[in-house]
Design a protein that fits this description.
The chain is mainly alpha-helical. It has one domain (about 55-440). Helices cover about 60% and strands about 5% of the residues. It is built from 18 helices and 4 strands. The model is unreliable at about 1-55 and about 445-468 (pLDDT under 50).
Length: about 475
């Protein structure tokens, strides 16, 4: 996507348009990481001479998500990059950190609970390490949830998923599925479900970028999103993942529904959204029955093993582990530790020679094992409050961005019965879940005018550019 050239004479640098400032009809201003300034005639001339400075929010989102997507290949270096990027972005935004964290402070209860579980953890050092890393992951998500230009964040994520998909299709591999010799596409890693999840989230991002491009009258951006989306659909089909396809179907349906409701009357939007909310409450109350039916339907439709490749055995063993410490659990990330007899047995059962990177393939069961019923109830309460706030914001101030984050949450929630969602450190799904939950309190592009700049900007200056 190449941004339009403004009358100021600024020229778009190659690749700079990926996350250039979005206008949406606002007056000619630019937001620095710590403030706002109007562009006067002389500043506009300097912008044309000095070139462009990339949007901080979009550039950070691109760098962060590329790091997370390629972290299996980067290893420890990827974790260092993640921490450095998050620290740098926080430093650039330090003047508004308080305003960012204040309305979202209750979301910090989740990582703080994980840290607190060190007190009763069976492996305190492991719990402390992973809970701190998870806390940094949550912080990155909350910082991005308050980005001043959320569409730039969306576009940065889109380019990150697009780059990963191109690399996967170019250098990907096939893995065997089952005992009959069937193969599935797994991309750059050995897990087909991981690729399917990446393709599904990337496809939801492409759909949002496509419609945002139409809304902003950027046809090149929409065509690029369409092209990348087709590649992601191909990868998803070849990965043969029932859970990802079922989740994507409901997530995409939710996006189109929310998108259609944007311009409806407030009463209609509130009524339909509240009905959907009641449906989710009913689904939560009958979680066991509905999740079992969903799993069985998915297994039959996609011709899968009814045990979902051993998940039912994992859940049986998890039930015994939960019974041992039902209230507080074994501590955050304190079970899958090398040397733990129970974990070693499950790794051997699942033929995981590396003895790491495994879970119970059910978010609720995993949390019960780690932080018990106490932790699960606290986390569920925090998430429910955040979702209610997000729904309320959509009803009062609907936007394409909120449509995307709500559909992303639905996609992830649908998959919680068969996957571990939202609590893995340095993982894109965890970051996106907390961006979505934090978006209920986002100001977005409504940046207050700085008192130090009172000169009104001329209409000739283009809002995509600012002085370098």
């Amino acid at each position: 996507m190449t941004p339009n050239r403004g009358h100021s004479g600024a020229t778009a640098l190659p690749g700079a348009g990926g996350w250039a400032r979005f206008s949406d009809g606002a007056k000619v201003q630019y937001a620095t990481p710590v403030g706002v300034a109007s562009i006067g005639p002389h500043a506009a001339a300097r912008a044309g001479a000095a070139g462009l400075v990339l949007d901080t929010d979009g550039a950070f989102a691109f760098g962060l998500f590329v790091t997370m997507l390629f972290i299996p290949q980067l290893g420890t270096i990827g974790a260092v990059f993640f921490i450095a990027l998050t620290a740098g972005y926080a430093a650039l935004s330090w003047r508004r950190l308080y305003d960012t964290l204040r309305p979202r402070a209750f979301l910090l209860i989740v990582p703080l609970l994980c840290v607190f579980s060190t007190v009763w953890s069976e492996h305190p050092s492991e719990t402390l390490r992973y809970s701190i890393e998870f806390g940094i992951t949550v912080a990155a998500g909350l910082l991005l949830s308050d980005a001043r230009h959320p569409k730039a964040v969306l576009l940065g994520m889109f380019f990150a998923f697009g780059c990963y998909m191109v690399a996967s299709l170019a250098f990907g591999q096939l893995v065997k599925v089952g005992v009959d010799g069937t193969t599935a596409f797994s991309g750059l890693n050995s897990g087909k479900n991981l690729l399917a999840d990446t393709a599904s989230v990337g496809l939801l991002t492409s759909i949002a970028v496509f419609f945002a491009g139409i809304e902003d009258r950027k046809p090149v951006r929409s065509l690029l999103a369409l092209f990348v989306g087709c590649a992601q659909v191909y990868a998803l089909v070849e990965a043969r993942s029932a859970g990802a396809m079922l989740g994507l179907g409901l997530g995409a349906f939710a996006f189109f529904l929310f998108f259609a409701l944007r311009h409806s009357a407030l009463v209609v939007r509130a009524t339909v959204t509240c009905i959907l909310g009641l449906c989710f409450i009913a689904a939560a109350l009958f979680y066991r029955t509905l999740s079992g039916a969903l799993i069985d339907a998915g297994a039959r439709f996609f011709d899968k093993d009814p045990t979902l490749t051993g998940r039912t055995y994992l859940w049986q063993r998890a039930a015994d582990l939960i019974a041992e410490k039902p209230v507080f659990g074994k501590g955050f990330s304190a079970f899958w530790v090398q040397g733990n007899t129970d974990a070693e047995g499950l790794w051997r059962y699942a033929h995981i020679a590396s003895r790491d990177g495994f879970n119970f393939h059910n978010t609720f069961i995993d949390l019960l094992v780690q932080v018990g019923w106490f932790g699960l109830v606290v986390i569920a309460a925090v998430v429910v409050v955040a979702i209610v706030c997000l729904i309320r914001r959509f009803i009062t101030k609907p936007s394409v961005i909120l449509c995307f984050w709500m559909s992303l949450l639905i996609y992830e929630l649908v998959r919680t019965p068969i996957e571990y969602i939202g609590f893995t450190e340095f993982y894109y799904a965890s970051v996106m879940v907390f961006i979505a939950l934090g978006s209920a309190f986002a100001i977005g592009q409504q940046v207050p005018q700085s008192r130090r700049f009172t000169q009104r900007a001329p209409q000739s200056a283009h809002p995509y550019f600012r002085a370098g």
